C-alpha cells in the first residue's frame, strides 16, 4: 500500500493518514489496535498528554518490530502547562512516558481562551516560544497548534520566530473550516483534521451514502477521501480492527469535482463542536 505524505515548510514529511487515540486508555486494547494498525501500514500515531494513554502507546509500540525512525509520533501539551518553561517540562515528561528520545510533532492542544484570559495573546506567544526552544533543542522535529482560529494564528505569527508547521482542527463534511483552511494554505501551514468523521452523524447523510454506493466505498471512506483531496491530514480514531483496515483503504479511488462539491455543500449535521474562543471548562 502506498501512503501519501505531506511536507511541512521545514521539509519534515508526515503521513497523510494516521491513527487517532483519543479515549483509548486500556493497555490491552491499545496493544491490539496499534499492532493491527502497524501491520496495515499506519505509521502516524496521534496522542496527547490529556488523553492519559502515552504509557499504553509506549508499551504497544515496544511490542512491535517497526523501527522508531519509521514511526511518526505526534503529542500535545495540555492547557495546564502553558508558558515558556512549563511547555518544555511537559514535553520532557511526555517523552519519558512514551519512552522515546524525540517527538516527530508536538502541538499546543488549545489556544488560551479569550473568555478566561484577557492576556490570551501573550499566553499563546510565551507558550510558542517554549515550543520553538524544544524544536531548536532537537526534542521535537516539528511544532504546531490545535484548534487555532485565524485570529489566533495572526496574533501568534506576529511574534513567532518559527512559523507553525501545522494546525490540527475539527474538520469534516458539514464543517469545512474554509476560512481557517484557506488562511493556513496561504501561509504555508498544513492542516490536520481531528474527528474527520465528526461524531458519526455525518455518515447518515444521503449525499454521502449516494456517493459511497457509486464508488463502492463506505460513507466513512468518502469522508476521509474528501479530506485527503483537500490536502489535509486525517486521523480517524477507532478500536475496531475492521474499521482500521477500512479507513486506510482510501488511496485507490478519486472523488471527481462534482462529488467534492456535493460534499462541500453538505450542511452541518453534528460534530464535537467546541469553540476555542468560548470554552471555559478547560480553557
Q: Top keywords for this entry?
A:
single chain; 283 residues; 10 helices; 10 strands; 13% strand
Structural write-up:
The protein is α/β, with parallel strands linked by helices. Helix content is about 40%, strand content about 15%. The chain contains ten helices and ten strands. It has an eight-stranded parallel β-sheet, with helices on one face. It has a two-stranded antiparallel sheet with strand order 1-2. Strand 3 (about 20), helix 1 (about 25-40) and strand 4 (about 45) form a beta-alpha-beta unit. The longest helix has 17 residues, at about 120-135. The mean pLDDT is about 95.
Q: Per CATH, what is the topology? A: TIM Barrel
The average pLDDT value, as a whole number, equals 96
The number of strands is 10
Mind summarizing the main beta sheet? 8 strands, parallel
Relative strand content: 5-15%
Apparent shape: globular
Helix and strand pattern: EEEHEHEHEHEHEHEHHEHH
Structural class category = alpha/beta
Instruction: Walk across the major sheet and give the strand order.
Output: 3-4-5-6-7-8-9-10
Rg calc = 18 Å
The low-confidence parts are none
- Tell me the name of the CATH class: Alpha Beta
Tally of alpha and pi helices: 10
What is the number of independent domains? Answer: 1
CATH architecture: Alpha-Beta Barrel
The percent of residues in helical segments reads 25-40%
Q: What gap, in angstroms, lies between the N and C termini?
A: 40 Å
CATH superfamily: NADP-dependent oxidoreductase domain
Amino acid at each position: 500500500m502506498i501512503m501519501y505524505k505531506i511536507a511541512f515548510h521545514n521539509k519534515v514529511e508526515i503521513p497523510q493518514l494516521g491513527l487517532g487515540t483519543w479515549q483509548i486508555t486500556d493497555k490491552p486494547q491499545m496493544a491490539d489496535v496499534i499492532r493491527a494498525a502497524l501491520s496495515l501500514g499506519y505509521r502516524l500515531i496521534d496522542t496527547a498528554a490529556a488523553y492519559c494513554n502515552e504509557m499504553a502507546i509506549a508499551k504497544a509500540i515496544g511490542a512491535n518490530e517497526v523501527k522508531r525512525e519509521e514511526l511518526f509520533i505526534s503529542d500535545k501539551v495540555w492547557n495546564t502547562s502553558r508558558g515558556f518553561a512549563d511547555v518544555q517540562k511537559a514535553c520532557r515528561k511526555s517523552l519519558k512516558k512514551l519512552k522515546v528520545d524525540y517527538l516527530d510533532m508536538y502541538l499546543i492542544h488549545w489556544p488560551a481562551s479569550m473568555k478566561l484570559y484577557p492576556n490570551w495573546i501573550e499566553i499563546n506567544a510565551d507558550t510558542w516560544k517554549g515550543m520553538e526552544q524544544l524544536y531548536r533543542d532537537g526534542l521535537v522535529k516539528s511544532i504546531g497548534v490545535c484548534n487555532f482560529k485565524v485570529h489566533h494564528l495572526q496574533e501568534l505569527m506576529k511574534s513567532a520566530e518559527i512559523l507553525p508547521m501545522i494546525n490540527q482542527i475539527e474538520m469534516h463534511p458539514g464543517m469545512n473550516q474554509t476560512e481557517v483552511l484557506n488562511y493556513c494554505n496561504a501561509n504555508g501551514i498544513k492542516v490536520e483534521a481531528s474527528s474527520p468523521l465528526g461524531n458519526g452523524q455525518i455518515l447518515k447523510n444521503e449525499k454521502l451514502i449516494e456517493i459511497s454506493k457509486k464508488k463502492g466505498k463506505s460513507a466513512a471512506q468518502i469522508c476521509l477521501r474528501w479530506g485527503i483531496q483537500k490536502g489535509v491530514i486525517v486521523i480517524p480514531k477507532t478500536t475496531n480492527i475492521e474499521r482500521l483496515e477500512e479507513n486506510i483503504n482510501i488511496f485507490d479511488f478519486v472523488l471527481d469535482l462534482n462529488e467534492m462539491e456535493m460534499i462541500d455543500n453538505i450542511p452541518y449535521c453534528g460534530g464535537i463542536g467546541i469553540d476555542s474562543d468560548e470554552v471555559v471548562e478547560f480553557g
